[in-house]
Amino acid sequence: MQPFLDPSLSYEDNYANGPFGSFASALELPLPPGGGGCPEGAGEGGMRDEPRERFLGIPVHSTFGIPAGPLLNSRFVAAAFAHGFDLCVYKTVRSAARASHPWPNTLAVECDGDLAPDQTLIAHACEKNRVPRSITNSFGVPSQSPDVWQADMLAALRSAQHGQVLIGSFQGSGEGVAQIADYARAARLVAETGVPVLEANLSCPNEGKKGLLCFDTEKANAIVDAIRKEVADRPLLLKLAYFEDTSALQALVRALGGKVEGFCAINTLSARVVDANGQPALPGAGRDISGICGATIRWAGLLMTQKLAALRADNNMRFAIVSNGGVLTPADDKEYRDAGADAVMSATGAMWNTQLAQQIKKERCHDLK
Ligand SMILES: Cc1cc2nc3c(=O)[nH]c(=O)nc-3n(C[C@H](O)[C@H](O)[C@H](O)COP(=O)(O)O)c2cc1C
């Protein structure tokens, strides 16, 4: 039950001492051979060694993993690969160092059903012996300086076995044309580490600016063009927020669906979070509204997957759909795949259940029989 990223510790302490729980012990053991995929012939033989699935054309043991966020550095990534999460996204980096928002960064939120628009949630510290259904996370997308994270991303890349893929997430800082140029700079720095897949975060909810980049098709298009000019030799994914407005999503997909290899969705949904006395639960300016993740946003992740799948078919496009949002069980994974996801990921669910990849692989194999 101990999460591998400890909410009772600051970002800096997690970065320096994590991961925790069974992820920590994984680092002391030799890595298992292969990613622990389906048994040969879906149950008739031993564990297969050769990857049988493909992600963006790359052979993988499974199309399941952990999205940008909880894997802070190479130790977290190595532990995740060792636990069979075959697609791992290294937490979003920037082209210059940036401090984290102060602790606390992760709180449990009280929300039994689906998160509604404009809902205010009561948040409190995560309890030791209780797995939260949903959480808020508010880090502000901190980053080490490139000389630190480039070396560490390379170490993370080396911990991937055959059949496992490391994805490098990044975002640009600043405003206007400077931000567009910074996306390209960050992309080049990530590509220099050798990661085979890039992911541009266009949906950062913690910047405290006017609107999310993914809702501005013109700017998103300029960012993609700038990135492509800088790095043209490997797949590029775009991390999107939930689009309430289907016509805005249609515009984005029509403009970019043929230029990038895939869309990752969704990032967190925003909500006001207060403590039991109705006061802001997170200290500091601009943190009264923060990102919600876990079971309460699953409805939005599923709806986005369906919308993207429909738009892909309507526009005769081939981009991959990498889905996440509230995946806590094998049944959630199946629901996403049935909705059209090519790959599925879990952040909140995986943090508290490090066996999730193994459980999902077992269930996927069972479905194949
Ligand atoms: C601790 C934590 C940190 C996160 N940091 C990032 C980040 O740096 N970049 C990003 O694109 N998304 C980030 N996210 C969002 C996740 O990638 C994901 O979109 C969101 O948590 C919803 O998935 P879930 O319900 O499985 O948690 C973070 C999530 C968590 C829980």
Question: What does this protein look like?
Answer:
The chain is built from eleven helices and 15 strands. Helix 3 runs parallel beside helix 4 (146-158), helix 5 (176-192) packs parallel to helix 6 and helix 8 (298-314) packs parallel to helix 9 (330-339). The strands form three sheets. The protein has an eight-stranded parallel beta barrel, surrounded by six helices. It is α/β, with parallel strands linked by helices. Bound molecules: flavin mononucleotide. Flavin mononucleotide binds next to strand 4, strand 13 and helix 10.
- Shape assignment: globular
User: Which architecture would the CATH scheme give at its second level?
Assistant: Alpha-Beta Barrel
Helicity, in percent? 25-40%
Distance between the termini: 31 Å
SSE sequence, one letter per element: HHEEEHEEEEHEHEHEHEEEHEHEHH
Strand count, sense and barrel status of the largest sheet are:
8 strands, parallel, barrel
Order of adjacent strands in the largest pleated sheet: 3-4-8-9-10-11-14-15
**CATH-level-4 superfamily name:** Aldolase class I
**Which quaternary structure do these chains form?**
single chain
Bound molecules: flavin mononucleotide
Annotation field: number of helices = 11
Radius of gyration: 19 Å
